[in-house]
Amino acid sequence: MSTAHAAASPDSDAVQELESQFDATIARDQRIEPRDWMPEGYRKTLVRQIAQHAHSEIIGMQPEGEWITRAPSLRRKSILFAKVQDEAGHGLYLYSAAETLGIDRAELTQRLLEGRQKYSSIFNYPTPSFADVGVIGWFVDGAAICNQVPLCRSSYGPYARAMVRICKEESFHQRQGYELLLTMMRGTREQREMVQDAVDRWWWASLMMFGPPDDDSPNSAQSMAWKIKRHSNDELRQRFVDMTVPQAAKLGVTLPDPELRWNEERGHHDYGTPDYSELKRVISGDGPCNAERMERRRAAHEEGAWVREAASAHAAKQAARARAEAAA
Ligand SMILES: [Fe+2]
Ligand SMILES: [Fe+2]
């Protein structure tokens, strides 16, 4: 806390008191709720993180959504449908969590469309084969679980609570992906090759979902001090690698990293360094599908304008009716 206000005015005394209450709540591992005072930096960090998370859920519907009409069986189609629909739901819970911080969904969507807010780099990669649906479930939803399970204990109440249900659903997503791959691996040689090809294309991009390495992640320390984030990028990445290696062995695929091996001393797997310059390129807009994803998102937003207008007109009518009834 700042000691710069030597001649403290009553106002700054009040702010100091609020700050120390906030710090004490965080130190006791209790939750910050929307009614509580919070530092502006904490609020801004949460808005940025929750919005980025919400945008990722919504844009993340696209790469797999492309396969709904082409799923190979009714069973796969209904699973994929349910999964993609879950992601829409995740986006909605998260926009609602962000709204408790005093910013509405329309504004956040506007920021995304104007390129002022980001979404996860992983959704800028293409899905040329049906095996991609399986590998996204296994890797991408698996990485999401590693990232999000600790967020169930995040210091901001509405975010932490949204995350509980999201994580349960992500775990179904991961399993459906892995089960799809197990089925394909029991199929023809071509099917096994499709799985291996998809694994080769998604592995490094999935490792990069955890963000830049710790020594190049300037905002992480503050997020951890505020207990928004509970583990560093590299810790979570390690957790994902350790979880995935035995699953790959059981599936019968090779993870495309010659440096990958068990390190007895560390009790973890060693692994190679992802190409973080690619991550920077994709985040700054220059990935294989960035333009396509944003164009689709923009079109969906414009095509949905009539739904938003109809919903507001309906809400206004309901409110007018309620007022008239109250006055009668
Ligand atoms: Fe999700
Ligand atoms: Fe998911």
Task: Write a concise keyword list for the protein shown above.
single chain, 328 residues, mainly alpha, two-stranded antiparallel ribbon, 13 helices, 66% helix, 2% strand, binds fe (ii) ion
Describe, in plain words, how this protein is organized in 3D:
One of its GO terms (molecular function) is phenylacetyl-CoA 1,2-epoxidase activity. It holds the Pfam family PaaA_PaaC. Its EC number is 1.14.13.149. The chain is mainly alpha-helical and 328 residues long. Helix content is 66%, strand content 2%. Strands 1-2 form a two-stranded antiparallel ribbon. α6 runs antiparallel to α10. The chain is globular and about 70 Å long. The N and C termini lie far apart (55 Å). Bound molecules: fe (ii) ion (FE2) (2 copies). The site of one fe (ii) ion has 5 residues, from α6 and α7. One fe (ii) ion (FE2) binds next to α6 and α7.
